[in-house]
Each structure stands twice: as structure tokens, then as C-alpha cells.
Amino acid sequence: MDITYKINEPVTADDVIRVFRNSGITRPTEQKERIQKMLDNANLIVTAWDGDNLVGIARALTDYSYCCYLSDLAVDKAYQRSGIGRTLIDKIKEVIGEEVALLLLSAPGAMEYYPKLGFAKVENGFIIYRKR
To answer: What is the CATH number of the domain that holds 100?
Structure first.
């Protein structure tokens, strides 16, 4: 398996929807326009490709100075457990540098995954949930 990683490479909503659906992540995949908006407004996207096939994505919002919010990390189940998720996060970290904090909200099923990648669990956060 020869995986290629790309930073801010244009990607279609259809490809991302396929990866989201095949990864197990919960996203509004039935709303293509919303997924496109998510892509259009992210300012850091790292993708993993097997040839011309998108197999993983890390989508983030950052100021490149102080903080970066990792809003999506998804890898097609057929490619999981091969280091792609870890590499996507490593690529994000390379781009943002050591002065920038990397933050995320984890799905319940991934709570054990992120500490293995160096994330610390924080207790001092707050959220206002989306209504839809």
C-alpha cells in the first residue's frame, strides 16, 4: 500500500462523504452542500490517497499561531489500523508547528485512540451544542 499525503489539495464533497461513511464517523453525509461548506471554510486539510482514491482526511481550523481545532479525522475502515490516522495528525502538527495547541472533540468510541497519539484529556472545556 503506497499512501500519498497532500496538504490543502482540492477534494470533492462526494469523496469526503464516501470516506466519512466508510470510516464510521458521524457527519451529516446526507447534506452534500453542508459537507462542501465544511470543506470550503476549513483552512487546513490533510488528505491521504491510495492512487486517485481518497482514503483519509484531517480537517482543521487554525490561526497558525496559537490554536488549531481538528474538526474531522476519518479513515476508510479498509485502511484503518495502518497508521494513516496517526500520519494525518503528524502532518497537521508539522504544518502548525510547536507553538500551536491542537484541540479536538472525540467521539465516544475514539476516546482510547487519541491518548495513544499524544493527546492529553482535558477537563476544562465547554461546549454549546449545535441544534441540528
So the answer is: 3.40.630.30
pLDDT in tens, 92-120: 999 999 999 999 887 777 777 888 888 88
Instruction: Kindly report the pTM of this predicted structure.
Output: 0.90
Number of alpha helices (DSSP H) and beta strands (DSSP E) in the chain: 3, 5
Alpha carbon distance 123, 78 (integer Å): 33
Per-residue pLDDT reduced to its tens digit, 17-71: 999 999 988 898 999 999 999 999 999 999 999 999 999 999 999 999 999 999 9
**Domain of residue 109, residue span:** 3-117
SS (H, E, C) 4-37: EEEECCCCCHHHHHHHHHHHCCCCCCCCHHHHHH
Calculate the alpha carbon distances from 19 to 24, 61, 73, 80, 125 in Å: 9, 20, 10, 11, 29
75: which residues sit within 8 A by CB, 6+ positions away? 19, 23, 48, 55, 56, 84, 85, 88
